[in-house]
Fold:
Amino acid sequence: AQTIHQWPVAEIKAVGSPLSLGCTIKGKSSPNLYWYWQATGGTLQQLFYSITVGQVESVVQLNLSASRPKDDQFILSTEKLLLSHSGFYLCAWSLEQYEQYFGPGTRLTVL
Amino acid sequence: GDQVEQSPSALSLHEGTGSALRCNFTTTMRAVQWFQQNSRGSLINLFYLASGTKENGRLKSTFNSKESYSTLHIRDAQLEDSGTYFCAALSSSFSKLVFGQGTSLSVVP
Structure:
């Protein structure tokens, strides 16, 4: 059974449109959660992390926001997409500050 | 800030041969992870080390926190080993995982 699920698998959106990406963790109690972004052909960059419900810390400012409405859910969003938001978004989890495990990712294309 | 320098950026191996990837860290890191990213983009966990050496099949990784580097050794390379390999270091800052630039590995017959 998959522990971490991301949705949607892929999105094609227009510049200026809103975005919401989701991540759900199953079978883990109170995990730390993370969002990462990867430009095509590039490396991964940590965007946000959360250690508990309702608490999110920003690591890099990319005109995005994140929320953790439930213990097992992490949401990445923006009200206005930019071309530079295109890329691959990955959610990850860990127990406390240890090994991180990644979800399958969402591929975003902004036109 | 925390930086991870990964080398080489690209590597081509013949089946059955081996090589090593290396990551150097600019600051003291608490632990290191190594991943393989496949063609779909999925990150596969290879190793997590807080110190020392771990081995798994044809892969072996070492983390030397005092000298600020980590290595990943691949031996007897197979076609399915092709992909991009990333090291990522866990910094002293809470939960921040800093990735290297990746090594694109191509295993050829």
Remarks:
- Chain B has a mean pLDDT of 94.
- Chain B is about 0% helix and 60% strand.
